[in-house]
Amino acid sequence: MNSLNSDVTSIAKHLSKKQKDFDNAMTLIRDIVRESAQAITLLHNNELKKAEKTIAAAGKLTDKLKKFDGTFGYHAKQAYQEYAEAKIFSEIKLNHAIPSCKKVGVEQESYLMGLMDVAGELKREILESLRENKLDDAERYFKFMRTIYDSTRSIRFAEAVLNGFRRKQDVARMQVEGAGSEILSFKGKK
């Protein structure tokens, strides 16, 4: 009986640490998602300095979260994806470049998923540019949007390998088509 009590006590101690790690990981995940969403809002509002600081803060949180990947990597994917979206969108908006997966600093699947989500942010920028009669800006954002979609169009894997990617591809395709139509319509009115 002593052996059983010892085993149960040891297991409970292990699980208590695991619970504490899980709670810490979930706090980081929520903070990364919130900071990333805030950064995207700031970018859309052209509050670029604040956006850069917010993305940097999310990046530091992302680095902290990585220590939990071995145990809670599945739960962290959404946070990494949201951070990737914010980081990629920021680089496009501020530096007119799509950053590499290595520069973003997340694993490959999260990079791809975040990249696909950037299409929606670019469509929003296109519509805002057209509203402000900035056709050159709209066309520049559209070029990035097309580049992202075209470069990922050939990616076809099972849902078990890249869960949710095909849906994101379909959404991005519709966004590219819609944005292209908006630009053509705008040009037709001139």
Produce the secondary structure layout.
Elements: H1 2-44, H2 48-65, H3 69-95, H4 101-104, H5 108-131, H6 135-152, H7 165-189
Q: In brief, what are we looking at here?
A:
The chain has 190 residues and is an all-alpha fold. Helices cover 84% and strands 0% of the residues.
Report on the architecture of this protein.
Helices cover 84% and strands 0% of the residues. It is mainly α. The chain has 2 domains: 1-99, Methane Monooxygenase Hydroxylase, Chain G, domain 1; 107-190, Methane Monooxygenase Hydroxylase, Chain G, domain 1. α1 runs antiparallel to α2 (48-65), α3 (69-95) packs parallel to α5 and α5 (108-131) runs antiparallel to α6 (135-152). The model has no long low-confidence stretch (mean pLDDT 94).
Q: Which CATH class of the largest domain is shown?
A: Mainly Alpha
Provide the succession of SSEs: HHHHHHH
Helix content: over 70%
Largest sheet: none
What would CATH call the architecture of the largest domain? Up-down Bundle
Unreliable residue runs: none
